[in-house]
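Let us work through a complete example step by step.
Step 1: write down the sequence.
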Amino acid sequence: MNNNKIYKQKSHFWKWAVSFTLIATLMVGAVTALFMNKTDKTENALAVQNEFTAEMANTEYVMLSMRSSATAVENSVSKTLTATVLPETAENKAVDWSIDWGDDGKTENVTDYVSVTPTSDGSNVATVTCYKAFTGTIVITATTRENGYSATCVVTFVGMPADIVLNGSISQTNGEYKVGIGQTYTFNVSLTNPLGSVGSQFNSVSCGVNGVGSVVLGYMEHYNASGNDKWYDTSDQTVTLDSLKDNFITVSYSQGVLTINTIKSIESYYSSTQRMDGGRTTAYHDKFRSFVDDCYFKVWVKEETSGLMKEFNVRFDDGVVTGVSLAENELAF
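Step 2: predict the structure and record it as tokens.
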């Protein structure tokens, strides 16, 4: 065989070998680069995910509390709880709130029953909301962010009433009750709360009425023969309706029933009367002369144990009869 031919064949062989090696090296490098790039992206994605998870973990409690407070508008009762950070000169007054069962062995989710929601991040004021009745105790803890001092509040369920409901023989008109004169009105009284569970210890109910506004009273002589009236202006005095209320209206409560009795109109009031001139003149002492301002009555019902009170206005209806007069005061035959 020709030596030149053999040399050329070997030369071609090594060229192909070197080329193949270079191609293989480049492919390995490309695959490695792609793998490393994918690994870097995966690690970066995991880092971002972990950072997001950590951020969520730091804010999860606040977010859950806010969400619970926002959705539990109905069928719940809320109260405000304030944490005071001492001393008053402390610069960092931020606190963190937490809630847990006060009894060992409780497995229910405590926030299904009670939640605590700060008004803002780190606020020392929080809204405590009860969603349903529970047994045992729940403990709310406020912890200062600086130095970690804690204070606790124990929450129990006693069925505190939230409203006093009246069901009566008449209905309100424009937010008040309009009543006639010489009538009796009754209302069934019940205590309620949004949780539908009022404690049996809340059964001490009282009631009362106050007069609102003022009137002018004076001395008047009525001449029966002519039907004329004479007012002695120097006797005029302004008095509160509250000081005269027992002459117009009374309220009482017994066995779940509130009773309102109306006696006479305000315009017909006088303290006493006397006959003069053989009965030809009638003198009225402290007789109603005019209204100073808007006059009505405010009736209240109170549950003494809880301190819960309900007030409502009662006004004498202008359309009811308040008096009578005759065209002639004397007749002669």
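Step 3: interpret the result. The radius of gyration is 43 Å.
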